[in-house]
């Protein structure tokens, strides 16, 4: 495993812990930003980091992202100071889907550029 891959994996693990902390820590009743947008952006970055650091396939990235989002919502259901919402899980899944699309476009562009150089 090369040095960049190790760094990306460490960043991804730290990011998983950051999402867990933000998801399970008690929050004030009102937040200044859109909750669904936060979920969308968090899982967009989650999918991108997962794909880059572990080289998972697109389906595996999507399923792992939805699994982690589901895990968070299930835990939040049992926390008295948090609430679980299906809409949050939908925002997580849509963010992961958009993250995979972003990576797909970047990878496609890079492969086209490589072919043009040959």
Please specify the SSE layout and strand pairing.
Blueprint: H1 3-24, H2 35-54, H3 58-78, H4 86-117
Helix pairs in contact: 1-2, 2-3, 2-4, 3-4
Quick summary:
The chain is mainly α and 118 residues long. The chain has helices spanning 3-24, 35-54, 58-78, 86-117. The chain has one domain.
Structure description:
With 118 residues, this protein is an all-alpha fold. The chain has one domain. 81% of the residues lie in helices and 0% in strands. The protein contains 4 helices and no strands. The longest helix is centred in the C-terminal third of the chain and has 32 residues. It is elongated and about 60 Å long. It starts with a helix and ends with a helix. The mean pLDDT is 92.
Described by the principal axes of the CA atoms, the overall outline is elongated
User: How much is the average pLDDT?
Assistant: 92
- How far apart are the termini? 27 Å
Helices and strands: which structural class? Answer: mainly alpha
Q: Helical segment tally?
A: 4
